[in-house]
Design a protein that fits this description.
single chain, alpha+beta, four-stranded antiparallel β-sheet, two-stranded antiparallel ribbon, 5 helices, hydrolase activity, hydrolase
Length: 253
């Protein structure tokens, strides 16, 4: 370990940066020629635009990561009950397509600070690295990536449908609750009116039951007053006149 550190410090001290970069390029070419694998980088942002292939790979791996992944990142969107699975930072996942094993690696690096940009970039640089064998290159590039795009489209349609169904269910639930509240308020108003009318009827019945004598007394008084008025309005007849007689006992006509 100490020898490796000494050699590294010696190279940084003796060789200039241009020479070191040239050596690294040569070493990478030798390694790529001797290696039986090839690598493909799929970055999140392509220049200034979002890479659709990155989003498709992310959706596709989220469906298989919950089954084959050993270390996953769990996310849950706002106002959503679904939990999304994904690869953790700098973690790998092995997928199989038509008997061919492929390796996906989620690479996350810190982005260099920008002096000025009209479109602010995220602080982290994210991307997927696809590792496949060189013999399987034609199969993977022609069929596997198309399969990923189709599968991601299906998953996104299902998510959109579930979201619409959820919003539809929420709107239907709100309408149902609103109708129930309106029915309840109308029922309360009718019951109040019925109660007030019943109270008035009960009061009238009580009054009629409690004062029958008063009503009868009023009727008798009215009859007496009517009789008085009748007696006052009529003249009493004179008594019959007695016959006049003389001293001799004869009746004078």
């Amino acid at each position: 370990m100490g020898v490796f550190a000494f050699c590294q410090s010696f190279m940084y001290t003796v060789f200039p940066p241009e020479f070191r970069s040239a050596l690294l390029k040569i070493f990478n070419r030798i390694f790529n020629c001797c290696s039986s694998y090839c690598y493909f980088d799929i970055t999140e942002i392509d220049g200034v635009n979002t890479n659709e292939l990155y989003n498709a790979v992310q959706l596709y791996l989220s469906s298989s990561a919950s089954i084959t992944g050993s270390r996953l990142s769990l996310t849950r969107a706002l106002n959503s009950s679904a939990i999304t699975f994904g690869l953790s930072n700098n973690d790998r996942l092995v997928d199989n397509f038509k008997g061919v094993d492929v390796v996906w690696e989620h690479v996350v690096m810190q982005r260099q600070s920008q002096s000025f940009s009209w479109r602010p970039m995220p602080e982290e640089k994210r991307g997927f690295v696809l590792k496949i064998k060189k013999n399987d290159k034609s199969l993977i590039l022609n069929l596997y990536l198309d399969f990923i795009m189709e599968r991601a489209t299906d998953i996104s349609e299902v998510l959109i449908k579930n979201r619409r169904d959820r919003q539809k269910a929420i709107s239907e639930l709100l309408d149902t609750l609103k109708r129930r509240a309106e029915k309840r308020s109308s029922r309360n108003g009718v019951s109040i009116e019925k109660d007030s009318m019943e109270v008035e009827d009960e009061e009238q019945e009580k009054r009629a039951l409690e004062s029958p004598e008063e009503e009868c007394g009023l009727e008798e008084g009215c009859e007496k007053e009517e009789k008085k008025t009748e007696t006052k309005g009529t003249v009493a007849p004179f008594p019959p006149a007695l016959p006049l007689t003389s001293s001799d006992g004869l009746e004078i006509v």
